[in-house]
Amino acid sequence: MYDSEVKSLWLHGGTLVTATGSDPEQAGILLEAGRISRIGGAPPRGAEVVDCTGLTLTPGLIDAHVHLGMASPILDSVGYDMSVAEIAADMFANCARTLRTGFTTVRDCGGIDAGLVGVVASGKIPGPRIVQCGPIHCQTGGHGHYASEWEPAGLWSGREIPGLRTLAMLSDGPDEMRRNARESFRRGADFLKLCVTGGVISKHDKLTDTQFTFEEIAAAVAEATARGTYVTVHAHNVAGIRNAVLAGARCVEHGTGIDEETAALMAERQVSLVPTLTAVEAVIRNGLGLPGEFAERAARVRQAMIDGLLAAKAAGVRIGLGSDVIGPDQSRRGEELTLRAAVESPMEALIAATRVNARLLGLDNEIGTLEVGKRADIAGFTANPLEDPKLFADPENVAVVLRNGVIVS
What we know:
Elements: E1 8-12, E2 15-16, E3 25-26, E4 29-32, E5 35-39, E6 48-51, E7 56-59, E8 61-66, H1 74-78, H2 84-100, E9 103-108, H3 114-121, E10 129-132, E11 136-138, E12 168-170, H4 174-186, E13 192-195, H5 214-226, E14 231-235, H6 238-247, E15 251-254, H7 260-268, E16 272-274, H8 277-285, H9 292-315, H10 335-343, H11 346-360, E17 378-381, H12 390-393, E18 398-403, E19 406-407
Parallel strand pairs: 1-6, 2-7, 8-9, 9-10, 11-12, 13-14, 14-15, 15-16
Antiparallel strand pairs: 1-4, 2-3, 4-5, 7-17, 17-18, 18-19
């Protein structure tokens, strides 16, 4: 571990994969005041030299679909079977683990609030840079409403943990959506997330269900637009996706079953896509202690999500990368790059997890590539994951991580 006050580091001997489109090259890289100040040449006098011989250095990875607030056993966490202290401890540990595995920035797609963002940003706990939407917005009985069937909907808000976690807000009608969107922004949300179809892990709906009316989605879009930001939507069927896109949503999560016509509509309206293949595989493996019916749902989603990805790619849609992993062990979120590498190529997977995701988060002037002037967010792998994409999935292969020019792992 290096002191955070070190102003100048020279990373020596590594192979750089800059994610700019250029070929990998072996070159030194100079970091000053948290940014990349030079690539190539010799180390300047006085710089701290870090030997990266044999390592492959990439931009810090970005996961565009995380749930840092769901880092505990799922069924216990969404009920009243865990203390707030346990839930908080699991969240803090998950933040540290995420950073150690090479992910220096994440976009949280539902469940936390600005409280967690603040303690990580202050350095009180280690973690990645966090962009977040606050709670998920869902309709009563929709995806994200995890209450038991016999629990009156009016009790749902009692599960909030102010300053730490609010899993979802229930909205029924444009006026309630508008009010809840404003409340999310008041609490510090950077964007909004709506569930417009049923989900894989859902108690009260089917994957074929559509949720929220055009008018409800449009109300959220209007509030986001007024603040210079956007709405993204959880969506597992074409009807829900098209309704959201026509209402003004700017990003689609999962994108199950996107067809050629829908992909063309997304491209025309400059709507991005974030597939989440790892989450599907995790539910199929059933390591989360969930009922078997959820694994059956995930199996139905698997190929449809890949087909949607390929249709969107053919149409020219901007496609980011997100893992959507939940539960106590989120250490293998890099599996998303391995799975994407099998569908596209290892370099395309890496660029999606760096340059494309940085643009999706509106941070492409700061992170996402190894270029002079960018923040020094860097992940170092023991070998070249472009040659063996399985390396992305194993956290043991991440040898060094820097965030803002400071070695954090």
